[in-house]
Amino acid sequence: MSSVLTIRNLSKRYGHIQAVNDVSFEVERESVFGILGPNGSGKTTTLGIVLDVIKSDVGSYSWFDSERHTNDIKRRVGAILETPNFYPYLSGHKNLKIVADIKGVPYSKITTVLDKVSLLGRKDSRFKEYSLGMKQRLAIASALLSDPEVLVLDEPTNGLDPEGIRQIRDLIKQIASEGKTIILASHLLDEVEKVCTHVGILKSGNLLKYGNVNEILSEEVLLEVATDNLAALKAAIAEYPSLSLIDEVNGKLSVKSLDPALNATTLNKSLLEKGIVLNHLVSKKSSLEDQFLKIVKGK
Amino acid sequence: MLKLFKIEWSKLLQSRSFRVLLGIYIVVYTLFLLVLSSMFDRFSSDVLNEVVKNIDYNPFTFPDIWILTAYFAQPFTLLAAIIVIVLVVNEFDFRTARQHIIDGLTRWEFVLGKFITVVTISVIVTVLIFLLGSFTGLMKDTGTSPTGYGISLSYFIAFFVRTVGLLTFAMFLAMWIKRTGVTILIFIVLHLGLFAAIVRNRLDATIGDALPMGTFNRLIRLFRPDDSIIQNYEQLKLTDMILIAPTGQFVVSLIYIAAFVGLSYVVIRRNDLK
After folding, report:
1. Does B202 touch chain A (CB under 8 A)?
2. Does the CB of A125 have a partner CB in chain B at under 8 Å?
3. Could you list the mean pLDDT of each consecutive 10-residue stretch along chain A, which spans 299 residues?
4. The complex's ipTM?
5. Which one of A6, A174, A197, A204 has the fewest beta carbons within 10 angstroms of its own beta carbon?
6. How far is CA B256 from CA A213, B161, B162, in A?
7. Does the distance separating the beta carbons of B103 and A103 come in below 8 Å?
Protein backbone atom coordinates (compact mmCIF):
# COMPACT_ATOMS: atom_id res chain seq x y z
CA MET A 1 0.00 0.00 0.00
CA SER A 2 1.31 3.41 -0.86
CA SER A 3 1.89 6.03 1.76
CA VAL A 4 -0.22 9.17 1.93
CA LEU A 5 1.82 10.98 4.52
CA THR A 6 5.31 10.29 5.75
CA ILE A 7 6.70 12.14 8.73
CA ARG A 8 10.40 11.89 9.53
CA ASN A 9 11.94 13.01 12.81
CA LEU A 10 9.82 16.11 13.32
CA SER A 11 10.76 18.32 16.25
CA LYS A 12 9.39 21.66 17.36
CA ARG A 13 10.25 23.66 20.43
CA TYR A 14 8.39 26.65 21.89
CA GLY A 15 10.79 28.25 24.33
CA HIS A 16 11.24 25.74 27.11
CA ILE A 17 8.54 23.42 25.88
CA GLN A 18 9.39 20.65 23.49
CA ALA A 19 6.05 20.51 21.69
CA VAL A 20 7.03 17.76 19.28
CA ASN A 21 10.05 15.54 19.82
CA ASP A 22 11.51 13.42 17.02
CA VAL A 23 8.18 12.13 15.76
CA SER A 24 8.14 9.79 12.76
CA PHE A 25 5.25 7.84 11.31
CA GLU A 26 3.54 6.91 8.13
CA VAL A 27 -0.10 7.06 7.12
CA GLU A 28 -1.21 4.46 4.60
CA ARG A 29 -3.76 5.04 1.91
CA GLU A 30 -7.39 4.39 2.84
CA SER A 31 -6.62 4.05 6.52
CA VAL A 32 -8.22 6.02 9.30
CA PHE A 33 -5.26 7.16 11.31
CA GLY A 34 -5.89 8.39 14.83
CA ILE A 35 -3.41 10.65 16.56
CA LEU A 36 -4.20 10.11 20.17
CA GLY A 37 -2.94 12.06 23.12
CA PRO A 38 -3.96 14.21 26.04
CA ASN A 39 -4.32 17.98 25.59
CA GLY A 40 -0.97 19.58 24.99
CA SER A 41 0.66 16.42 23.73
CA GLY A 42 1.65 17.94 20.40
CA LYS A 43 -1.17 16.71 18.18
CA THR A 44 -2.12 20.09 16.76
CA THR A 45 1.51 21.16 16.42
CA THR A 46 2.27 18.01 14.43
CA LEU A 47 -0.71 18.58 12.17
CA GLY A 48 0.14 22.29 11.89
CA ILE A 49 3.59 21.37 10.61
CA VAL A 50 2.35 18.96 7.94
CA LEU A 51 -0.30 21.51 6.94
CA ASP A 52 2.36 24.15 6.29
CA VAL A 53 1.32 26.68 8.93
CA ILE A 54 3.90 25.88 11.61
CA LYS A 55 7.58 25.53 10.87
CA SER A 56 9.39 22.54 12.32
CA ASP A 57 12.82 22.99 13.87
CA VAL A 58 14.04 19.63 12.60
CA GLY A 59 12.66 16.91 10.39
CA SER A 60 10.62 16.66 7.25
CA TYR A 61 7.33 15.39 5.90
CA SER A 62 5.98 14.48 2.52
CA TRP A 63 2.49 14.07 1.14
CA PHE A 64 1.98 11.38 -1.50
CA ASP A 65 5.76 10.80 -1.61
CA SER A 66 6.16 14.20 -3.20
CA GLU A 67 9.17 16.33 -2.37
CA ARG A 68 7.39 19.67 -2.42
CA HIS A 69 4.25 20.84 -0.67
CA THR A 70 2.59 22.49 -3.65
CA ASN A 71 -0.86 24.01 -3.95
CA ASP A 72 -1.88 21.02 -6.01
CA ILE A 73 -1.11 18.82 -3.02
CA LYS A 74 -3.02 21.13 -0.72
CA ARG A 75 -6.05 20.62 -2.93
CA ARG A 76 -5.74 16.88 -2.44
CA VAL A 77 -5.80 17.31 1.35
CA GLY A 78 -8.84 18.78 3.09
CA ALA A 79 -8.03 19.91 6.60
CA ILE A 80 -9.30 21.67 9.67
CA LEU A 81 -7.00 22.61 12.50
CA GLU A 82 -8.46 23.06 16.00
CA THR A 83 -11.63 25.15 15.81
CA PRO A 84 -13.61 25.76 12.64
CA ASN A 85 -12.18 28.95 11.14
CA PHE A 86 -14.60 31.15 9.24
CA TYR A 87 -15.73 34.76 8.97
CA PRO A 88 -18.43 35.09 11.63
CA TYR A 89 -20.29 37.82 9.79
CA LEU A 90 -20.59 35.85 6.54
CA SER A 91 -23.14 33.11 5.88
CA GLY A 92 -22.04 29.49 5.66
CA HIS A 93 -22.58 29.61 1.92
CA LYS A 94 -20.55 32.82 1.46
CA ASN A 95 -17.75 31.40 3.61
CA LEU A 96 -17.58 28.34 1.41
CA LYS A 97 -17.53 30.55 -1.69
CA ILE A 98 -14.29 32.06 -0.42
CA VAL A 99 -12.85 28.59 0.18
CA ALA A 100 -14.03 27.50 -3.29
CA ASP A 101 -12.25 30.50 -4.81
CA ILE A 102 -9.04 29.61 -2.99
CA LYS A 103 -9.20 25.95 -3.97
CA GLY A 104 -10.28 26.71 -7.52
CA VAL A 105 -13.47 24.67 -7.20
CA PRO A 106 -16.73 25.63 -8.97
CA TYR A 107 -19.46 27.08 -6.73
CA SER A 108 -21.77 24.24 -7.72
CA LYS A 109 -19.79 21.96 -5.39
CA ILE A 110 -20.90 24.02 -2.38
CA THR A 111 -24.45 22.68 -2.50
CA THR A 112 -23.14 19.11 -2.70
CA VAL A 113 -20.95 19.37 0.40
CA LEU A 114 -23.51 21.35 2.39
CA ASP A 115 -26.06 18.67 1.62
CA LYS A 116 -23.62 16.01 2.76
CA VAL A 117 -23.26 17.58 6.21
CA SER A 118 -27.00 18.43 6.37
CA LEU A 119 -26.50 22.17 6.43
CA LEU A 120 -28.26 23.08 3.22
CA GLY A 121 -31.26 24.44 5.10
CA ARG A 122 -29.09 26.85 7.08
CA LYS A 123 -26.71 27.89 4.33
CA ASP A 124 -27.75 31.54 4.43
CA SER A 125 -27.43 31.96 8.18
CA ARG A 126 -24.37 33.74 9.43
CA PHE A 127 -21.58 31.55 10.71
CA LYS A 128 -21.76 33.13 14.17
CA GLU A 129 -25.39 32.08 14.48
CA TYR A 130 -24.49 28.41 13.99
CA SER A 131 -24.36 25.99 16.89
CA LEU A 132 -21.00 24.40 17.66
CA GLY A 133 -22.03 21.19 15.95
CA MET A 134 -23.08 23.08 12.83
CA LYS A 135 -19.78 24.95 12.83
CA GLN A 136 -17.90 21.67 12.95
CA ARG A 137 -20.02 20.29 10.13
CA LEU A 138 -19.43 23.40 8.05
CA ALA A 139 -15.70 22.92 8.60
CA ILE A 140 -15.96 19.33 7.37
CA ALA A 141 -17.98 20.54 4.38
CA SER A 142 -15.27 23.07 3.65
CA ALA A 143 -12.58 20.41 3.88
CA LEU A 144 -14.54 18.19 1.49
CA LEU A 145 -15.02 20.97 -1.07
CA SER A 146 -12.21 19.97 -3.39
CA ASP A 147 -13.13 16.29 -3.09
CA PRO A 148 -9.77 15.55 -1.44
CA GLU A 149 -8.14 12.16 -1.11
CA VAL A 150 -7.17 12.84 2.47
CA LEU A 151 -9.16 14.46 5.24
CA VAL A 152 -7.33 15.87 8.27
CA LEU A 153 -9.56 16.50 11.28
CA ASP A 154 -8.39 17.96 14.56
CA GLU A 155 -10.64 17.22 17.53
CA PRO A 156 -13.78 17.26 15.37
CA THR A 157 -16.13 16.38 18.24
CA ASN A 158 -14.62 18.70 20.82
CA GLY A 159 -17.28 20.42 22.89
CA LEU A 160 -20.21 18.76 21.15
CA ASP A 161 -23.25 17.22 22.80
CA PRO A 162 -23.81 13.45 22.41
CA GLU A 163 -26.04 13.92 19.39
CA GLY A 164 -23.52 16.20 17.72
CA ILE A 165 -20.76 13.71 18.46
CA ARG A 166 -22.75 10.95 16.82
CA GLN A 167 -23.50 13.03 13.75
CA ILE A 168 -19.82 13.81 13.26
CA ARG A 169 -18.82 10.20 13.87
CA ASP A 170 -21.33 8.87 11.38
CA LEU A 171 -20.07 11.44 8.92
CA ILE A 172 -16.46 10.36 9.41
CA LYS A 173 -17.38 6.71 8.96
CA GLN A 174 -19.34 7.52 5.85
CA ILE A 175 -16.46 9.50 4.38
CA ALA A 176 -14.01 6.72 5.26
CA SER A 177 -16.25 4.21 3.52
CA GLU A 178 -15.89 6.26 0.34
CA GLY A 179 -12.24 5.29 0.24
CA LYS A 180 -10.78 8.48 1.62
CA THR A 181 -7.85 8.46 3.99
CA ILE A 182 -8.62 10.19 7.27
CA ILE A 183 -6.16 11.56 9.79
CA LEU A 184 -7.91 12.27 13.04
CA ALA A 185 -6.43 13.91 16.10
CA SER A 186 -8.28 13.35 19.32
CA HIS A 187 -7.91 13.09 23.06
CA LEU A 188 -10.97 10.85 23.19
CA LEU A 189 -9.95 7.21 23.11
CA ASP A 190 -13.47 6.08 22.61
CA GLU A 191 -13.55 8.08 19.41
CA VAL A 192 -10.32 6.64 18.07
CA GLU A 193 -11.34 3.13 19.08
CA LYS A 194 -14.64 3.48 17.26
CA VAL A 195 -13.48 4.93 13.97
CA CYS A 196 -9.75 4.38 13.48
CA THR A 197 -7.86 1.57 11.82
CA HIS A 198 -4.45 2.85 12.91
CA VAL A 199 -3.35 4.82 15.88
CA GLY A 200 -0.32 6.77 17.06
CA ILE A 201 -0.10 7.73 20.70
CA LEU A 202 1.51 11.03 21.58
CA LYS A 203 2.58 12.24 24.99
CA SER A 204 4.53 15.42 25.71
CA GLY A 205 5.57 15.58 22.10
CA ASN A 206 6.84 12.00 21.97
CA LEU A 207 5.29 9.31 19.82
CA LEU A 208 5.01 6.46 22.31
CA LYS A 209 3.53 3.85 20.07
CA TYR A 210 1.98 3.54 16.67
CA GLY A 211 0.46 0.85 14.54
CA ASN A 212 -2.69 -1.05 13.79
CA VAL A 213 -5.44 -0.47 16.33
CA ASN A 214 -5.94 -4.23 16.68
CA GLU A 215 -2.29 -4.77 17.43
CA ILE A 216 -2.21 -2.11 20.07
CA LEU A 217 -5.53 -3.24 21.41
CA SER A 218 -4.13 -6.58 22.57
CA GLU A 219 -6.14 -9.55 23.70
CA GLU A 220 -4.67 -9.73 27.16
CA VAL A 221 -6.96 -10.26 30.13
CA LEU A 222 -7.44 -7.67 32.85
CA LEU A 223 -8.74 -8.72 36.24
CA GLU A 224 -10.00 -6.50 38.97
CA VAL A 225 -9.78 -8.11 42.40
CA ALA A 226 -10.31 -7.08 46.01
CA THR A 227 -10.26 -8.71 49.41
CA ASP A 228 -10.32 -7.75 53.07
CA ASN A 229 -6.60 -8.22 53.47
CA LEU A 230 -5.15 -6.32 50.56
CA ALA A 231 -1.52 -6.77 51.62
CA ALA A 232 -1.84 -10.55 51.61
CA LEU A 233 -3.50 -10.40 48.18
CA LYS A 234 -0.68 -8.28 46.81
CA ALA A 235 1.89 -10.70 48.14
CA ALA A 236 0.03 -13.64 46.66
CA ILE A 237 -0.25 -11.99 43.26
CA ALA A 238 3.45 -11.25 43.25
CA GLU A 239 4.08 -14.99 43.40
CA TYR A 240 2.50 -15.59 39.99
CA PRO A 241 5.10 -14.91 37.28
CA SER A 242 2.44 -14.30 34.59
CA LEU A 243 0.52 -11.74 36.64
CA SER A 244 1.42 -8.13 37.02
CA LEU A 245 -0.14 -5.47 39.16
CA ILE A 246 -1.16 -2.48 37.10
CA ASP A 247 -3.15 -0.25 39.32
CA GLU A 248 -4.75 0.09 42.72
CA VAL A 249 -7.99 2.05 42.95
CA ASN A 250 -10.33 2.24 45.98
CA GLY A 251 -8.95 -0.91 47.51
CA LYS A 252 -9.29 -2.80 44.22
CA LEU A 253 -6.32 -4.17 42.36
CA SER A 254 -6.07 -4.22 38.59
CA VAL A 255 -4.06 -7.19 37.49
CA LYS A 256 -2.93 -8.15 34.04
CA SER A 257 -2.59 -11.77 33.06
CA LEU A 258 -0.20 -12.68 30.31
CA ASP A 259 -1.14 -16.35 30.52
CA PRO A 260 -4.56 -17.03 28.92
CA ALA A 261 -4.92 -20.08 31.13
CA LEU A 262 -4.84 -17.89 34.18
CA ASN A 263 -8.26 -16.28 34.00
CA ALA A 264 -10.86 -15.26 36.56
CA THR A 265 -11.94 -18.83 37.30
CA THR A 266 -8.49 -20.31 37.71
CA LEU A 267 -7.15 -17.35 39.66
CA ASN A 268 -10.11 -17.42 42.05
CA LYS A 269 -9.61 -21.13 42.67
CA SER A 270 -5.88 -20.77 43.08
CA LEU A 271 -6.19 -17.88 45.53
CA LEU A 272 -8.79 -19.75 47.56
CA GLU A 273 -6.31 -22.59 47.93
CA LYS A 274 -3.89 -20.07 49.36
CA GLY A 275 -6.50 -19.00 51.87
CA ILE A 276 -7.41 -15.70 50.26
CA VAL A 277 -11.10 -15.11 49.79
CA LEU A 278 -11.99 -12.49 47.22
CA ASN A 279 -14.92 -10.16 47.81
CA HIS A 280 -14.66 -8.63 44.33
CA LEU A 281 -13.70 -10.17 41.03
CA VAL A 282 -14.24 -8.69 37.59
CA SER A 283 -12.75 -9.92 34.35
CA LYS A 284 -12.45 -7.56 31.43
CA LYS A 285 -10.59 -7.26 28.20
CA SER A 286 -8.04 -4.56 28.01
CA SER A 287 -9.57 -1.72 26.07
CA LEU A 288 -7.67 0.88 24.14
CA GLU A 289 -8.30 3.20 27.04
CA ASP A 290 -6.41 0.99 29.44
CA GLN A 291 -3.69 0.56 26.89
CA PHE A 292 -3.55 4.25 26.39
CA LEU A 293 -3.41 5.07 30.07
CA LYS A 294 -0.85 2.38 30.61
CA ILE A 295 1.35 3.63 27.81
CA VAL A 296 1.02 7.24 28.85
CA LYS A 297 1.62 6.55 32.52
CA GLY A 298 4.36 4.03 31.93
CA LYS A 299 6.85 6.42 30.40
CA MET B 1 -5.19 38.82 -9.11
CA LEU B 2 -8.86 38.76 -10.06
CA LYS B 3 -9.36 35.76 -7.80
CA LEU B 4 -7.77 37.64 -4.89
CA PHE B 5 -9.85 40.73 -5.57
CA LYS B 6 -13.01 38.63 -5.63
CA ILE B 7 -12.14 37.01 -2.30
CA GLU B 8 -11.21 40.28 -0.61
CA TRP B 9 -14.16 42.18 -2.03
CA SER B 10 -16.72 39.73 -0.63
CA LYS B 11 -15.10 39.99 2.81
CA LEU B 12 -14.91 43.77 2.65
CA LEU B 13 -18.44 44.40 1.49
CA GLN B 14 -20.09 42.44 4.30
CA SER B 15 -17.79 43.60 7.06
CA ARG B 16 -19.63 45.65 9.61
CA SER B 17 -16.54 47.61 10.62
CA PHE B 18 -16.08 48.59 6.99
CA ARG B 19 -19.67 49.77 6.64
CA VAL B 20 -19.76 51.60 9.95
CA LEU B 21 -16.41 53.33 9.53
CA LEU B 22 -17.20 54.27 5.94
CA GLY B 23 -20.51 55.70 7.14
CA ILE B 24 -18.74 57.70 9.84
CA TYR B 25 -16.25 58.90 7.26
CA ILE B 26 -18.95 60.19 4.92
CA VAL B 27 -21.05 61.84 7.62
CA VAL B 28 -18.19 63.43 9.55
CA TYR B 29 -16.35 64.68 6.52
CA THR B 30 -19.47 66.11 4.88
CA LEU B 31 -20.28 67.95 8.12
CA PHE B 32 -16.70 69.10 8.36
CA LEU B 33 -16.75 70.57 4.85
CA LEU B 34 -20.10 72.23 5.42
CA VAL B 35 -19.04 73.76 8.73
CA LEU B 36 -15.76 74.89 7.21
CA SER B 37 -17.43 76.56 4.27
CA SER B 38 -20.01 78.35 6.37
CA MET B 39 -17.26 79.50 8.71
CA PHE B 40 -15.45 80.84 5.70
CA ASP B 41 -18.54 82.66 4.54
CA ARG B 42 -18.87 84.44 7.85
CA PHE B 43 -15.16 85.06 8.11
CA SER B 44 -14.89 86.47 4.63
CA SER B 45 -17.81 88.84 5.04
CA ASP B 46 -16.58 90.16 8.37
CA VAL B 47 -12.84 90.26 8.10
CA LEU B 48 -11.57 89.16 4.77
CA ASN B 49 -12.99 92.14 2.93
CA GLU B 50 -10.65 94.33 4.88
CA VAL B 51 -7.55 92.26 4.32
CA VAL B 52 -7.64 90.50 1.01
CA LYS B 53 -7.97 92.35 -2.21
CA ASN B 54 -9.73 89.76 -4.34
CA ILE B 55 -13.03 89.78 -2.59
CA ASP B 56 -14.75 87.57 -5.13
CA TYR B 57 -12.52 84.69 -4.27
CA ASN B 58 -14.16 81.78 -2.49
CA PRO B 59 -12.14 78.57 -2.15
CA PHE B 60 -15.35 76.57 -1.74
CA THR B 61 -16.11 76.94 -5.42
CA PHE B 62 -14.68 74.99 -8.34
CA PRO B 63 -11.92 74.18 -8.94
CA ASP B 64 -10.34 75.19 -5.65
CA ILE B 65 -12.82 73.19 -3.66
CA TRP B 66 -11.15 70.02 -4.92
CA ILE B 67 -7.80 71.14 -3.64
CA LEU B 68 -9.34 71.99 -0.28
CA THR B 69 -11.18 68.69 -0.15
CA ALA B 70 -8.07 66.70 -0.90
CA TYR B 71 -6.10 68.65 1.68
CA PHE B 72 -8.57 68.59 4.53
CA ALA B 73 -9.48 64.93 4.00
CA GLN B 74 -6.00 63.90 5.06
CA PRO B 75 -6.59 63.45 8.79
CA PHE B 76 -9.59 61.26 7.96
CA THR B 77 -7.22 58.68 6.51
CA LEU B 78 -7.04 57.44 10.09
CA LEU B 79 -10.57 56.04 9.71
CA ALA B 80 -9.55 54.18 6.56
CA ALA B 81 -6.45 52.91 8.37
CA ILE B 82 -8.62 51.56 11.19
CA ILE B 83 -10.68 49.67 8.60
CA VAL B 84 -7.50 48.14 7.19
CA ILE B 85 -6.13 47.27 10.64
CA VAL B 86 -9.42 45.65 11.71
CA LEU B 87 -9.66 43.64 8.50
CA VAL B 88 -6.07 42.40 8.73
CA VAL B 89 -6.19 41.54 12.44
CA ASN B 90 -9.53 39.78 11.84
CA GLU B 91 -7.71 37.30 9.62
CA PHE B 92 -5.58 36.29 12.59
CA ASP B 93 -8.36 36.47 15.19
CA PHE B 94 -10.71 34.36 13.09
CA ARG B 95 -7.72 32.19 12.14
CA THR B 96 -8.87 32.50 8.57
CA ALA B 97 -5.36 33.44 7.45
CA ARG B 98 -4.17 30.08 8.70
CA GLN B 99 -7.10 28.24 7.20
CA HIS B 100 -6.52 29.96 3.84
CA ILE B 101 -2.90 28.79 3.82
CA ILE B 102 -4.06 25.26 4.67
CA ASP B 103 -6.61 25.48 1.85
CA GLY B 104 -3.93 26.38 -0.64
CA LEU B 105 -3.46 30.15 -0.66
CA THR B 106 0.24 31.01 -0.69
CA ARG B 107 1.60 33.43 1.88
CA TRP B 108 2.43 35.85 -0.88
CA GLU B 109 -1.15 35.70 -2.18
CA PHE B 110 -2.39 36.41 1.32
CA VAL B 111 -0.26 39.56 1.56
CA LEU B 112 -1.15 40.57 -1.99
CA GLY B 113 -4.84 40.10 -1.21
CA LYS B 114 -4.57 42.47 1.71
CA PHE B 115 -2.66 44.98 -0.41
CA ILE B 116 -5.48 44.76 -2.96
CA THR B 117 -7.84 45.63 -0.10
CA VAL B 118 -5.64 48.62 0.72
CA VAL B 119 -5.75 49.84 -2.88
CA THR B 120 -9.49 49.21 -3.09
CA ILE B 121 -10.19 51.21 0.06
CA SER B 122 -7.89 53.98 -1.20
CA VAL B 123 -9.84 54.15 -4.46
CA ILE B 124 -13.13 54.25 -2.57
CA VAL B 125 -11.92 57.02 -0.26
CA THR B 126 -10.45 59.06 -3.11
CA VAL B 127 -13.63 58.81 -5.17
CA LEU B 128 -15.57 59.66 -2.04
CA ILE B 129 -13.73 62.88 -1.31
CA PHE B 130 -14.04 63.79 -4.97
CA LEU B 131 -17.79 63.33 -4.78
CA LEU B 132 -18.06 65.14 -1.45
CA GLY B 133 -15.96 67.99 -2.87
CA SER B 134 -18.16 68.15 -5.93
CA PHE B 135 -21.25 68.12 -3.74
CA THR B 136 -20.00 70.99 -1.57
CA GLY B 137 -18.82 72.86 -4.65
CA LEU B 138 -22.18 72.50 -6.35
CA MET B 139 -23.93 73.82 -3.26
CA LYS B 140 -21.70 76.87 -3.05
CA ASP B 141 -21.21 77.50 -6.72
CA THR B 142 -23.62 80.09 -7.95
CA GLY B 143 -23.60 79.22 -11.60
CA THR B 144 -20.05 79.90 -12.68
CA SER B 145 -18.96 78.66 -16.06
CA PRO B 146 -18.27 74.93 -16.47
CA THR B 147 -14.67 75.75 -17.34
CA GLY B 148 -14.23 76.30 -13.65
CA TYR B 149 -14.69 72.57 -13.22
CA GLY B 150 -11.23 71.95 -14.64
CA ILE B 151 -10.30 69.43 -12.02
CA SER B 152 -6.97 69.53 -10.27
CA LEU B 153 -6.25 65.89 -10.88
CA SER B 154 -2.76 66.05 -9.46
CA TYR B 155 -4.19 66.73 -6.00
CA PHE B 156 -6.28 63.59 -6.16
CA ILE B 157 -3.34 61.55 -7.40
CA ALA B 158 -1.29 62.89 -4.51
CA PHE B 159 -4.13 62.13 -2.11
CA PHE B 160 -4.48 58.62 -3.52
CA VAL B 161 -0.77 57.80 -3.31
CA ARG B 162 -0.63 59.20 0.20
CA THR B 163 -3.61 57.09 1.24
CA VAL B 164 -2.18 53.91 -0.31
CA GLY B 165 1.13 54.64 1.44
CA LEU B 166 -0.36 55.16 4.89
CA LEU B 167 -2.75 52.22 4.56
CA THR B 168 0.02 49.90 3.37
CA PHE B 169 1.97 50.94 6.44
CA ALA B 170 -1.12 50.22 8.58
CA MET B 171 -1.40 46.80 6.90
CA PHE B 172 2.22 46.01 7.68
CA LEU B 173 1.83 47.06 11.33
CA ALA B 174 -1.30 44.93 11.68
CA MET B 175 0.40 41.86 10.20
CA TRP B 176 3.35 42.38 12.46
CA ILE B 177 1.58 43.17 15.74
CA LYS B 178 -1.66 41.22 15.14
CA ARG B 179 -3.59 43.23 17.73
CA THR B 180 -6.15 45.89 16.84
CA GLY B 181 -5.79 48.32 19.74
CA VAL B 182 -2.03 48.40 19.93
CA THR B 183 -1.70 48.64 16.17
CA ILE B 184 -4.11 51.58 15.93
CA LEU B 185 -2.25 53.35 18.74
CA ILE B 186 1.16 52.87 17.15
CA PHE B 187 -0.25 53.90 13.80
CA ILE B 188 -1.67 57.12 15.22
CA VAL B 189 1.62 58.03 16.89
CA LEU B 190 3.66 57.37 13.76
CA HIS B 191 1.07 58.76 11.37
CA LEU B 192 0.97 62.06 13.18
CA GLY B 193 4.60 62.23 12.28
CA LEU B 194 5.74 62.43 15.88
CA PHE B 195 8.76 60.29 15.21
CA ALA B 196 9.53 62.15 12.01
CA ALA B 197 9.11 65.45 13.86
CA ILE B 198 11.58 64.42 16.55
CA VAL B 199 14.10 63.38 13.91
CA ARG B 200 13.39 66.59 12.04
CA ASN B 201 13.96 68.85 14.99
CA ARG B 202 16.69 66.99 16.81
CA LEU B 203 18.70 65.54 13.98
CA ASP B 204 18.11 66.76 10.52
CA ALA B 205 15.10 68.14 8.67
CA THR B 206 15.93 66.28 5.46
CA ILE B 207 16.14 62.92 7.24
CA GLY B 208 12.84 63.55 9.03
CA ASP B 209 11.14 64.42 5.76
CA ALA B 210 12.67 61.43 4.02
CA LEU B 211 11.20 58.93 6.51
CA PRO B 212 8.14 57.05 5.24
CA MET B 213 5.54 59.03 7.20
CA GLY B 214 7.27 62.30 6.39
CA THR B 215 7.31 61.38 2.71
CA PHE B 216 3.66 60.31 2.56
CA ASN B 217 2.37 63.18 4.65
CA ARG B 218 4.15 65.82 2.60
CA LEU B 219 2.73 64.70 -0.75
CA ILE B 220 0.09 67.35 -0.14
CA ARG B 221 1.11 69.95 2.40
CA LEU B 222 0.81 73.51 3.56
CA PHE B 223 3.61 75.83 2.52
CA ARG B 224 6.46 76.54 4.89
CA PRO B 225 8.07 79.96 5.35
CA ASP B 226 11.13 78.76 3.46
CA ASP B 227 9.11 77.82 0.39
CA SER B 228 10.10 80.38 -2.20
CA ILE B 229 7.15 79.50 -4.42
CA ILE B 230 4.94 82.08 -2.85
CA GLN B 231 6.07 85.47 -3.97
CA ASN B 232 3.04 87.57 -4.39
CA TYR B 233 1.27 87.70 -1.05
CA GLU B 234 -1.04 90.32 -2.44
CA GLN B 235 -2.91 87.90 -4.66
CA LEU B 236 -2.47 84.89 -2.48
CA LYS B 237 -5.33 82.44 -2.61
CA LEU B 238 -5.97 79.92 0.12
CA THR B 239 -5.26 77.05 -2.24
CA ASP B 240 -1.91 78.51 -3.23
CA MET B 241 -0.73 77.62 0.23
CA ILE B 242 -1.41 73.94 -0.42
CA LEU B 243 1.49 72.45 -2.29
CA ILE B 244 2.04 69.20 -4.13
CA ALA B 245 5.33 67.36 -3.80
CA PRO B 246 7.78 67.06 -6.71
CA THR B 247 7.72 63.88 -8.81
CA GLY B 248 10.78 62.49 -7.06
CA GLN B 249 8.87 62.29 -3.81
CA PHE B 250 6.14 60.28 -5.52
CA VAL B 251 8.76 57.82 -6.72
CA VAL B 252 10.15 57.54 -3.18
CA SER B 253 6.59 56.99 -1.90
CA LEU B 254 6.06 54.13 -4.32
CA ILE B 255 9.35 52.58 -3.22
CA TYR B 256 8.23 52.81 0.41
CA ILE B 257 4.89 51.21 -0.48
CA ALA B 258 6.67 48.32 -2.21
CA ALA B 259 8.97 48.00 0.81
CA PHE B 260 6.05 47.75 3.25
CA VAL B 261 4.40 45.09 1.10
CA GLY B 262 7.71 43.22 1.08
CA LEU B 263 8.13 43.57 4.84
CA SER B 264 4.59 42.28 5.38
CA TYR B 265 5.53 39.20 3.38
CA VAL B 266 8.70 38.72 5.43
CA VAL B 267 6.69 38.92 8.66
CA ILE B 268 4.06 36.43 7.43
CA ARG B 269 6.70 34.09 6.06
CA ARG B 270 8.88 34.07 9.14
CA ASN B 271 6.27 33.45 11.80
CA ASP B 272 4.07 30.46 12.53
CA LEU B 273 0.39 31.02 11.89
CA LYS B 274 -1.01 30.04 15.24
Report:
1. no
2. no
3. 87 91 92 89 92 92 86 89 92 95 93 92 94 92 92 89 87 89 87 85 86 70 83 84 80 79 83 86 70 66
4. 0.82
5. A174
6. 57, 11, 11
7. yes
